[in-house]
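Please, structure for the following, as tokens.
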Amino acid sequence: MYLCEVKIETIHFFITNINTLLYKMIKAIVLSCMDYRFVTKIHNALSQEGYCENYDIFVAAGGSLMYTDDRSVFLLSDDLNNWRNMFEKHIDLALALHDIKEIIIFEHEDCGAYKSFYKNKQSIRSHKYNFKMLQSYLSDQYQSLNIIGYEINLNGEYIKYDE
């Protein structure tokens, strides 16, 4: 009976330590759009890139759209800052809990948020442009983190933005 208890305690100890170790192995925080069509596609792309479920995820309509320099996109100037602050608080938490090394941003084609927020359809900024704005801003704030951008299409094919 005592051996069984020891084994159970040993197994419990092992599982607890493995979970703690895995919890600390999170490599990145991912920013993606809320579009349901891309959830599985982004997960698959991240797996192909070696992020086998070892990332935190933050979802916001339009992804890097919150870092646009086009203030006419938002009805109230506070909206832009509120979105940014929320994302940055999540980055800070991911750093504190998981010691992340990267921020990964996924943009996608046919984005409803871009269509919705930009009033003049002729002036739609590209996803890559807004990613570069985000990358520049976050590079100043989080100098120790590598910031990586991807764009994915409806077929699940993706490209990595140039560094």
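The domain at 26-160 is CATH 3.40.1050.10 (Beta-carbonic Anhydrase; Chain A). The two ends are 60 Å apart (CA to CA).
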